[in-house]
Amino acid sequence: LEEIPRPIQDSGNILKQGYLEKRSREPSFFGSEWHKRWCVLTQRNFLYYASEKSKQPKGSFPIERYQARLDPQLRKDSRKKCCFQLLCPGKRSYEFTAPSPAEAQDWVEQIRFLLRDLSSLTIPCDEDEEEEEEEEELSKDRDSSDSMNNSQSSALNPEEPELEGDDIYEVMPGE
C-alpha cells in the first residue's frame, strides 16, 4: 500500500519533510540544474513533489538499502556545505541541497537512523554465536546419551523427560 503515492496531507507516517533542491538527472547546456522540491521521508519511501501543495509526487523511491552522506563536492558555490547524496549500488543516486548545513546534516541523520531501524528488523546472526550454539547442542546430545548408557532413568533427569507411548504427563514423586 505504501508504494501507492498519497497526498501529503493523508500520509500519517512522515518522518521528515521540507524544501530541498534536487539535481536533475539530465544536465542542461549550462551544467547541472537544481530544482526546488518539497521532499518527504516516510518509513519506507523518499518522495519529492513540485511544491508543498502538490497532490502527486514528481518521483519516489524505496529508501531501503540506500546510504546517505554529506557531499560538499556536489556544488562549487557557497551552498556546497548544504549538499548530501542518497546512494544505492545498482540504482540511481540522488543529490540534494538543503537550506543550511545543519538542515543537510539533519536529513542525513534522519535517513541513517531510519535505515538502521529498517535493517534491525532482521536480527543478524554472528558466526561465532552460531558455532557456540552448535557446540552446546552437541554437548547436550553427548550428555543425554551418556545418561542413557549408564541406565539412569530419565525421571532422575528433569531436564529431559522421557515420553513413553502416548503418556505426556510427568510422573510426580510419591505417585
Topology:
Layout: E1 14-23, E2 34-42, E3 45-49, E4 59-62, E5 67-70, E6 83-87, E7 94-97, H1 101-119, H2 127-149
CATH topology of the domain at 14-121: PH-domain like
* Rough outline: elongated
For the record, the CATH class of the domain at 14-121 is Mainly Beta
How many β-strand runs? 7
Q: Which structural class fits the helix and strand makeup? A: alpha+beta
Distance between the termini: 60 Å
Rg over CA atoms: 29 Å
Strand order of the largest sheet: 4-3-2-1-7-6-5
Following the backbone from N to C, one meets helices and strands in this order, namely: EEEEEEEHH
CATH superfamily of the domain at 14-121: Pleckstrin-homology domain (PH domain)/Phosphotyrosine-binding domain (PTB)
Unreliable parts? 1-10, 151-155
Question: Architecture of the domain at 14-121, CATH level 2?
Answer: Roll
Q: Hey, roughly how much beta strand do the residues contain?
A: 15-25%
List keywords for this structure.
single chain, 175 residues, alpha+beta, PH-domain like, 7 strands, disordered N terminus, cell membrane, SKAP_fam, PH_domain, cytoplasm, phosphoprotein
